[in-house]
Design goal:
The complex is a heterodimer of chains A (222) and B (321). Chain A has helices at 41-48, 74-78, 96-107, 111-124, 140-152, 170-185, 197-203, and strands at 2-11, 15-25, 30-34, 56-61, 64-65, 81-84, 158-162, 189-193, 206-211, 214-219. Chain A is of the alpha/beta class. Chain A has a domain at 2-90 and 157-219: Rossmann fold (3-Layer(aba) Sandwich), CATH 3.40.50. In chain A, the strands form two sheets. A six-stranded mixed beta sheet of chain A has the order 6-7-8-3-9-10, sandwiched between helices. Chain A has a four-stranded antiparallel beta sheet with strand order 2-1-4-5, with helices on one face. In chain A, strand 7, helix 6 and strand 8 (189-193) form a beta-alpha-beta unit. Chain B is an alpha+beta fold and 321 residues long. Chain B has ten helices and four strands, in the order ααβαβααβαβαααα. Chain A binds chain B through residues 1, 26-28, 49-53, 62-64, 71-72, 74-80, 83, 89-91, 102-103, 106-108, 110, 150, 154, 157, 186-187, and chain B through 1-6, 8-9, 20-21, 23-24, 222-223, 225-234, 236, 317-321. Chain A: One of its GO terms (biological process) is cell division. Chain A: It is found in: Cell inner membrane; Cell membrane. Chain A: Residues 2-221 form the ABC transporter domain. Chain A: This is Cell division ATP-binding protein FtsE.
């Protein structure tokens, strides 16, 4: 589902962020991406979501070659890659419902279908009763779950999360990770960048470790 | 191992795509209008500025149009009215007219007999009682002289007038069309002025709308970024801003139309009074269907162009760095 072959990413101002990254993730696989701050975790995720293009190397996502994907096709690629951010990236002046509906509205789904799918996604993250609330009225954990609902509402085959539990206490973090496992069960491929090593160890999933832009470890779960 | 469930999604067929496209347009247009109406004060101010800018050339156009209508009624005025000596009678006048008609520079000569001149004078009003007091007709015979098309400049008429005054029957002459021609020249000037003012204020409207849209884009840059993240196409992101420009244009154009119409309503009674003093039933004409269409079409186009420029400068689409 995700294939990296000798991928390099160099920034003119910061130098090499990723060096010779190669790995493959199968459909329905869930993996963690760990490493110290600045090791290149976010950069790697940004390459998959085509927020940036690699300097060198090939990336295939869901059969698409991202190096040759035309500009006009990028939105359609992003609809197949759900992204979750540490800072949630919610629209502060829109309701929970509207925030979650955004990917569907953007894709031009009919009104009725949007309502049905948004409620299904909110139900999955346990926020069905808060659909009229605006994001600032929610707790950090709830906001993150809204972000997750928005990422999965379009039923993308790939889900990326960048430090999704960065601001949450361990109990809430665990809940979020269990939520991710439920998506894995229905066949979603997940890649989660985190430095919550204790949780990573407990959950027995494949784990990539980045160090200074290199893939220094790739441990299978069990 | 799970069976791969996800395939690349097939694009919807053409009819569905069209339905989606149309639906998104309608949604975007209505949502944008709702957004503008949600903030009535800033929207109202922008619309008012556009409306006033467009009302100015619109009003000048109406003025020029009305003056032209007024002047059009005088096209039948003779170039030169030649007043004959008082002792020249109708028969002699007719003779003279026949002679003049043979001249190459003269197209037509109309003889206004003493009787008909008196009748006309009576009909013109205000003089009935004064005329009753007179025992005999004080008016001379007048020849109304219409020049050939090639002989109607003020200079040529001047020459013709001198020539006519040398006739022994002539008393004095009056050039009627010279001032009309000056009036026409002033009208032409006003028309060019309308055009220039329209272009200048049109550019102003373009800049106002462009700047308003630019600020709107900057205000909503977080929203735009998030929409790009969840897979919005460049067209989808541009659309509301283009509609906003078109709405500003339409609302501004309607405001301009309203302002001009209101001004005409206020001007109509004094104009009618003035016209009645001149025994005329002249009425002010409004913008009319064509001019209204031109005002609205140009204001919408200005809105679209202004927002298009802003959108192209400030929205680059989902560009990966």
């Amino acid at each position: 589902m995700i294939l990296f072959e000798h991928v390099f990413k160099r920034y003119p101002e910061r130098g090499e962020a990723l060096t010779n990254i190669s790995f493959e993730m199968k459909v329905g696989e869930m993996a963690f991406l760990t490493g110290h701050s600045g090791a290149g975790k976010s950069t790697l995720l940004r390459l998959i979501g085509l927020l940036e293009r690699p300097t060198r190397g090939q990336i295939l996502v869901n059969g698409r070659d991202l190096a040759t994907l035309p500009q006009a096709q990028i939105p359609y690629h992003r609809r197949e890659v759900g992204m979750i951010f540490q800072d949630h990236r919610l629209l502060p002046d829109r309701s929970v419902f509207d925030n979650v509906a955004l990917p569907l509205v953007v894709a031009g789904l009919p009104h009725k279908e949007v309502g049905r799918r948004v409620r299904a996604a909110l139900d999955q993250v346990g926020l069905l009763k808060r659909e009229r609330a605006i994001p600032v009225a929610l707790s950090g954990g709830e906001q993150q779950r809204v972000g997750i609902a928005r990422a999965v509402v379009g039923r993308p085959p790939v889900l990326l999360a960048d430090e999704p539990t960065g601001n949450l206490d361990p109990e809430l973090s665990k809940e979020i990770f269990q939520l991710f496992e439920r998506f894995q069960y229905v066949g979603v491929t997940l890649l989660i960048a985190t430095h919550d090593l204790a949780l990573v160890k407990n959950m027995h999933h494949r784990t990539f470790t980045l160090g200074d832009g290199r893939l220094i470890n790739d441990t299978r779960g069990w | 191992m799970l069976k791969p469930r996800f395939r690349r999604r097939r694009l919807p067929n053409l009819a569905d795509q069209f339905a989606i496209w149309l639906n998104q347009h309608v949604q975007s247009a209505l949502a944008t209008l709702g957004r503008l109406l949600d903030t009535p004060l800033p929207t109202g101010m922008t619309v008012a500025v556009i409306g006033i800018s467009l009302a100015l050339p619109g009003a000048l156009y109406v003025l020029a149009d009305n003056l032209r209508t007024l002047a059009g009624g005088w096209d039948q005025t003779a170039a030169i009215s030649l007043f004959l000596q008082y002792d020249v009678d109708d028969a002699a006048a007719n003779n003279l007219a026949d002679r003049l008609r043979k001249l190459p520079e003269i197209a037509q000569v109309q003889v206004i007999t003493r009787e008909s001149a008196l009748d006309e004078f009576r009909a013109l009003g205000g003089f009935e009682e004064a005329l009753e007091q007179l025992k005999n007709n004080p008016l001379p015979v007048v020849l109304a002289i219409y020049p050939q098309p090639g002989y109607s400049t003020p200079e040529q008429l001047e020459v013709m007038q001198d020539k006519l005054l040398k006739l022994k029957e002539a008393d004095f002459a009056r050039m009627d069309t010279v001032w009309l021609q000056r009036f026409q020249a002033i009208l032409d000037l006003i028309q060019v002025g309308v055009l220039l003012l329209g272009v200048l204020l049109g550019i102003g409207v373009l800049l106002i709308i462009g700047n308003t849209i630019r600020l709107e884009i900057l205000n909503r840059c977080i929203e735009i970024e998030i929409m790009e993240l969840v897979g919005a196409t460049a067209a989808f992101i541009r659309r509301p801003f283009l509609y906003a420009g078109a709405w500003y244009g339409l609302l501004g154009g309607l405001t301009a139309w309203l302002l001009v119409t209101l001004a005409l309503v206020l001007l109509q009674p004094p104009v009618s009074r003035l016209a009645s003093l001149y025994r005329s039933d002249f009425e002010l004409a409004g913008l009319g269907v064509t001019a209204t269409f031109v005002v609205l079409a140009s204001s919408i186009s200005l809105g679209l162009i202004g927002s298009w420029v802003a959108v192209n400068r400030h929205l680059r689409g989902a560009e990966p760095s």
